[in-house]
Amino acid sequence: MRMKHLTVAALTLWLSVSCSQRQEDFPFRNPDLPIDERIDDLLKRLTAEEKVGQMMNTTPAIERLGIPEYDWWNEALHGVARAGKATVFPQAIAMAATFDDDALHETFTMVSDEARAKYHQYQRDKEYDRYKGLTFWTPNINIFRDPRWGRGMETYGEDPYLTERMGIAVVKGLQGDDPKYFKTHACAKHYAVHSGPEWNRHEFDVTVTPRDLWQTYLPAFEALVKEGNVQEVMCAYNRYQGKPCCSSDKLLIDILRNSWGYEDIILSDCGAINDFWQRDERTPRHETHPDAESASADAVLNGTDLECGNSYRALVKALKDGKISEQDLDVSLRRLLKGRFELGMFDPDERVPYAQIPYSVVESPEHVAQALEMAHKSMVLLKNKNNTLPLSKTIRKIAVVGPNAADSTMLWANYNGFPTHTVTILEGIRNKVPDAEIIYELGCNHAADFVIQDLGNNITSTAGQGFASEFFNNTEFKGEAAYKGLANQLHYTTGGNTQFAPNVNLTNFTARFTGEFEAPETEQVEIKISGNDAFRLFVGDEKVAEVWENEYGAEKTYILNAEKGKKYPVKIEYMQRTGSADLNFQIGTRRPVDFAATATKVKDADVIVYVGGISPRLEGEEMPVNVEGFKKGDRTNIEIPKVQQEMVKALKATGKPVVYVLCTGSALALNWEDANIDAILN
Q: Of residues 293, 347, 619, 673, which has the active-site annotation?
C-alpha cells in the first residue's frame, strides 16, 4: 500500500531498477552457463521480426532484453579502419612483400589490441554505430590474378601459398589465443573466384577450370577454415556456375560446410543480395531472382547467415508467404549468437581478459615503430646501377619531383584508419638530410597532361583555413547537423564504403561546405567539381553548377574571371542517395605540363628523386574514375601514365642520376625505366 505515496519519479526509478534486474537474471546473461543453453534461452525470447533484424549487419537494439544495437561491419585491412585514430600499417600487398608471416602475426596482434581498446571505449560511451565493433571483415585472400585489378592492393599477391600463410597470420593475430573468448573475429573474403573486374562485378559470371578452382582460388580459404579457425567467411558479388556466390550451394554447402566442415558465420558482401533481384539502369546486376523475398530466402537456405545490406528485411514477408520457416532462420541465428557470446558481448568486462587492454595502445610508440619496420621490410629495390643507392648523407643538393612526393593520403592506401601524423616522402627526405638543399617540384600529376596550380589555401571560413562543413543524416539539410568541422581539402570518396565524416551515414545524407576565396591575381581561375551523386556549386549569389533531382554524378567546370584581392563567397551542397559517394573540388589556375621547365629547375641538383606511380584515388574498389588507362577503379593496361613517362625522360636528359621511387598497389611496366634509370625503389 505504501506505493501509493511514491512520487512518479521514484516509481519510474523503481521500475527501471526492477526491469534492469530482471534483464540481468535472464539465463542468456549468465556467463557460467554453456553457450548452447544461453543461445536457446535468447532464441525463445525473440519474435520473428526481431530474429530477422539480427540477421542484417546493422542489428537494432532489443530494449526489453537490454541488448544494444550492434553493427557487424568493421574493417582492419592494415590497421583498425574508419573509426578515427589508429596505427596505419602498410597496405596488405606491401606486407605480403615482407614474406614474413611471423611479423605479420605480430602486426595483427597489435591491430586487435587497438580494436579491443577502441571497442570497449565506444561501449562505455554508448557508441554503437558502424566501424566500432569487434567483427572485422579482414583479410582479403583473393588471388591477384590480373594486375589491372584495382583491389589487388588489398590482397597478398598472386601466389596461393603466400596468400595462405599470410592470411593465417592475420586471422590468428586478430582472433587471439584465449581458451574461452575470441579477441575479435576475422573474416576470409571474398569467397570465391573473385579477382575483378570492378566495373561489372555485380553481374559477372566466373568461368574457371576445376583445376584452377582447386589449385589457385580455394587453397587459402580452405587453410583459413581448417588451420586458422576463421570465424567468418564473406561470399563474393560475382556468380559461379550461373549462381550468385551468396546463394551457391556448390560453394557454400558442398565445399565450405560439407567438405571442409565449416560451422561458423557466412555473410554477404555489401549489397550482394540486392544484386539477385534489383533492377538498376546505372549498374547491371545478376537479376536471377524475381523479388527481395525470393532472393533473401534462397541466400539463407544456402548458408548466408548475415546480410550486409537491407534485402533481408523481406524475410518477414518470406516467412508469411511460406518461402522460408522460422526454424531456418534459427539455424543462422545460432551461428550469429554463438559468435557474439564467444566475443564476450553479453558478459561483464571483468570476465573478458581482452577488456582490460588500455586505450593507450592506440597508435602507441611501439605500434608506430612496428608500422615503420613493416614498411622497411616491404620495400623492394628493383634496380641499383653502379650502387646509386644508398645516397651519401653528405650530399649537398637533392631535387624531388613527382605527384606522390608530397601526397600524404596516397600513403594511407584504401580501407584505412587515420594516423595523427603522416610523413610524406618529401618530408622524410628532408628529415634524413637536414643539411642538404632540397628542391621540390610537382612536375606533373598522375595521368593528366596539365597541372593545376592549386589555390585552395586561399579559401578561408569561420572554421579556419578551408571550408566550414556541415553534414546532415537526411537528404533535405534538415535539423541539427550530425557533424560540423573544417574541410581543408574536398577530396571525399566512399570507395570501400568509407564515411565522409564521423557519425555521418554512408547514404541518404547531405553536406554543405562554405568558404570565401580571395584571388591572389587578376586571372582566370578554374573551379572543378565532381560527384558520384548530386551537387550544387554557388559562387557569390550565382548557382554556377548543378547536378540534382533525378540526375546522378558528373564533373562540372566553372571559369571565374577573378580580380586580384577580391573575395568570392563559395558554397557547395552535396547529396548522396544510394551507392558509393564521391565528391571532389579543386580551385586553381590550369597550366600545361612543362617538361623542359621542370628539368631546368632541377638540373643543378646532385641527384634527382622522382616519386611517381599511381594512387589509391585511381585504383581501388568500384571507383568513379574514368581517365585514360583507368576504368572504375581498375586499369585498362599496366603502363605508367604517359605524362609521367615523358617527365622522367626529361629528368634523365639532364644527365644527372635519377632515382625512381615507385608508389603503386599493383604491377607496372617499367621497360624504358629499367633500361635507362639509375635506381628504382618500389
A: 619
Distance of CA 92 to the CA centre of its chain: 12
Give the residue-averaged pLDDT of 384-392. Answer: 96
Q: Which helix (H) or strand (E) holds 421?
A: none
Mean pLDDT across the chain, nearest whole number?
A: 93
Q: 22 falls in which pLDDT band (50, 70, 90)? A: low
| Residue 216 identity | T
619 an active-site residue?
Answer: yes
Mean pLDDT of 252-274: 98
Q: Mean pLDDT, to the nearest integer, of 284-289?
A: 96
How many Å is the maximal CA-CA distance in the chain? Answer: 100
Q: Which CATH number fits the domain that encloses residue 558?
A: 2.60.120.260
Q: Are residues 78 and 53 in the same domain?
A: yes
Same domain, 191 and 263: yes
Do 393 and 485 belong together in one domain? no
Q: Is 401 left (phi over 0), alpha (psi -120 to 50) or beta?
A: beta
Count of domains for the chain: 3
Asked whether residue 617 is assigned to any structural domain, the reply reads yes
Among the listed residues 101, 164, 198, 269, the single catalytic one is 269
Q: What is the CATH number of the domain that holds 352?
A: 3.20.20.300
| Strands annotated E in 225-360 | 232-235, 239-240, 243-244, 265-268
∠ CA 231-234-240, rounded to 5°: 135
The CATH number covering residue 669 comes to 3.40.50.1700
**SS3 letters across 230-266:** CCEEEECCCEECCEEHHHCHHHHHHHHHHHCCCCCEE
Query: Residue 666 belongs to what H/E stretch?
Result: none
Is 69 among the catalytic positions? no
CA–CA–CA angle 96, 99, 100 (5° rounding)? 105
Query: Coil, strand, or helix at residue 74?
Result: strand
What is the amino acid identity at position 317?
K
pLDDT tens digit string along 517-571?
Answer: 999 999 999 999 988 789 999 999 999 999 987 777 778 999 999 999 999 999 9
Query: Is 370 domain-assigned?
Result: no
Confidence of residue 494 (pLDDT cuts 50, 70, 90): low
**What is the arithmetic mean of pLDDT over 612-631?**
91
Instruction: Say what percent of the chain tops pLDDT 90.
Output: 83
